């Protein structure tokens, strides 16, 4: 019985440490903010393919403050329209037979954080918020294993963007990519 209690105690400690580490990583990722670098999560499960973009407003429209002037509002609305057609952002290559099931596009506002103090050169940050463009696209693909690469016209559509950090997860495992304007493609052949 004593061995059983020790095992339970040991597993509880391991679980607590793991949970704390995951929670700390999640907080770090939410607070992390770097101009010129957007994030993309690509997840594949069965026949479903999901793309989730989180991109600083400066990369998309050239500013991060809340749009209030007519010109800024028009700039933001124009950018949101570009996201409406996912092929302005990414192109799925291969004979995959994917159909768009769902898309969500919006702007998330976040409070300014301590890490941002290092960006003294940015005069446009007169307010305490940063806008982040968020876009999620979900597809159902009849031949998902025939997808061989993803191309990113995103860098032409939004020339302020410098890099996408991509996390790719499928039933075969996970990998990461750094995609830049000079080579706007990832090869995922054999990863699905």
Could you say which structural class the secondary elements and strand pairing correspond to? alpha+beta
Number of helices: 4
Helix content class: 25-40%
> CA-to-CA gap between the ends?
46 Å
Q: Tell me, what's the shape?
A: elongated
User: Which residues sit in consecutive blocks of at least 5 with pLDDT less than 50?
Assistant: 3-31, 113-127
Instruction: State the strand order across the main sheet.
Output: 4-5-2-1-7-8
* Sheet with most strands: 6 strands, mixed
State the order of secondary-structure elements, H for helix, E for strand.
HEEHHEEEEHEEE
Q: What amount of the residues lies in strands?
A: 35-45%
Rg computed from alpha carbons, rounded to a whole number of angstroms:
20 Å
Number of strands: 9
Output mean pLDDT. 80
Name the descriptors.
4 helices, 192 residues, 28% helix, 6-stranded mixed β-sheet, alpha+beta
How would you characterize the overall build of this protein?
The structure is a single chain. The protein has 192 residues and is α+β, with helices and mostly antiparallel strands. It has helices at residues 2-31, 57-61, 70-84, 154-157, and strands at 37-45, 48-56, 91-93, 98-111, 129-141, 149-151, 163-170, 173-180, 185-187.
